[in-house]
Amino acid sequence: MRTIDTIYINGSFVQPHGKEEAALFNPATEEQIGIVRLGDEQDVDKAVSAAKAAFAILSQSSKAERIAMLHSLHDAVSARAADLTDAMREEYGAPASFIGFSVPHAATSFLHMASTLETYEFRRRIGHAEVEMRPAGVAAAITPWNSNYGFICGKLATAIAAGTTMVVKPSEMSAIQTQLLTECLHAAGLPNGVFNIVNGYGHVVGAALSAHRDIAKISFTGSTVTGRAILQAASATFKRVTLELGGKSPNVILDDADLDTVIPQVLAAGFANSGQACIAGTRVLAPESRLAEIHDRLAGAVATLKVGDASDPEVSIGPMVSQKQWDRVQSYIRLGQEEGARLIIGGEGRPEGLNRGWFVRPTIFSDVSNDMRIAREEIFGPVLCVIPYRDEAHALEIANDTVYGLQAYVFSSDLARAKRVAERIDAGRVVINGAPHEPLAPFGGFKQSGIGREFGTYGLESFLEPRAVLS
């Protein structure tokens, strides 16, 4: 069993002042595999002080120096890809397909930001003004458990590119992954204090960062409820915030779609990361004219999906991250039936043959109306709702009838038609016909899915403030 009793401040692994501990589990077996000692407000103060001291130097660094740092970070993370993969599999349980994306994505996020930085102009002439894009100040990153490496690396890469130092508060449930990643980042040899990592609870470490007088910028990924609390705390000192929050993404199947191609893609979008993804396409909008066919195709395809331990490469859906999350998903499956929705496949309990582990039966509901809670609230598990629509206008009405607006999916045999539909969906990203991820395009949400954007130039500028000097 692993004991993690250090945090990372000012270039060193140090014991936290905090005394609280949290247990770590393998979600596929429910066995405790470790324990982590958590930081507190005093640890936050030390980390912020280190970042503040380092900011005076990093903010004056050259573009070339920052690019070199980003390349060093990429190399250090890439060097331990196998170890990172093993840790994520054991502590989080994501299927091989997701881990196979997540670990390389974490490393290459440094290269993508280095590429962005190479062509970015920090000084521009506008009329008789000289405009300079300056680092906003010491930043805090608060990251979730569902893609620990990617969120930490992506936010850190952007901060360094901007000349901003950072304090990271990762999820306490990902401490084994965080410890290993921190070792990688340390090996890159960056100046002390450029990044600092403090394990801790959100209501302790996260709250202290959100209210800290010396934090100028917060980048948070997580639930809308927590994002709202962070925004309120940050408002007292007018911190700049980027919030990437929840989603209830529409997965729109147009009536001309080729179901042989589309059904696997619809399920891939809906069950991404075992359903534990803010971008999961959990509302499947199906034309009434093809509803029965789509039901049959979905049920048949789901029946072939393998649920289980991520050590099996054939597994498509892994466990929920915790007992609490398993209970939450089970409660929504019960709720859907109480609301009058009909189960096409799945239901409560574990899949057949799995007697332990926080595994959920992949579940699809039909006879769902968009006013049901299962259609409006983020479940964060492998549970999809099929919602019928009459025509294209009705589909758009349903797609946009949500408090969220993070991502959406459109499937059609007619690309021009799919693009016309995409243009009318209120979401930060719309994916047409399963298009691949674009790491330089802006990512973030409309409405209660967040504030601001990440990735590429849009993400870089969220860590910068423009200053104009007129002469």
Automatic annotation (TrEMBL):
Entry keyword set: Metal-binding, NADP, Oxidation, Oxidoreductase, Potassium
Gene3D superfamilies, A to Z: Aldehyde Dehydrogenase, Chain A, domain 1, Aldehyde Dehydrogenase, Chain A, domain 2
Domain Aldehyde dehydrogenase: 14-469
E.C. no: 1.2.1.3
Residues at the active site: 244
Superkingdom of origin: Bacteria
Broad class of enzyme this protein falls into: oxidoreductase
Gene Ontology MF terms: aldehyde dehydrogenase (NAD+) activity; metal ion binding
A Pfam family recorded for this sequence: Aldedh
Catalysis: reaction(s): an aldehyde + NAD(+) + H2O = a carboxylate + NADH + 2 H(+)
Matches recorded under PANTHER family: ALDEHYDE DEHYDROGENASE (PTHR42804), ALDEHYDE DEHYDROGENASE-RELATED (PTHR42804:SF1)
Protein family: Belongs to the aldehyde dehydrogenase family.
Entry protein name: aldehyde dehydrogenase (NAD(+))
Organism: Rhizobium lusitanum
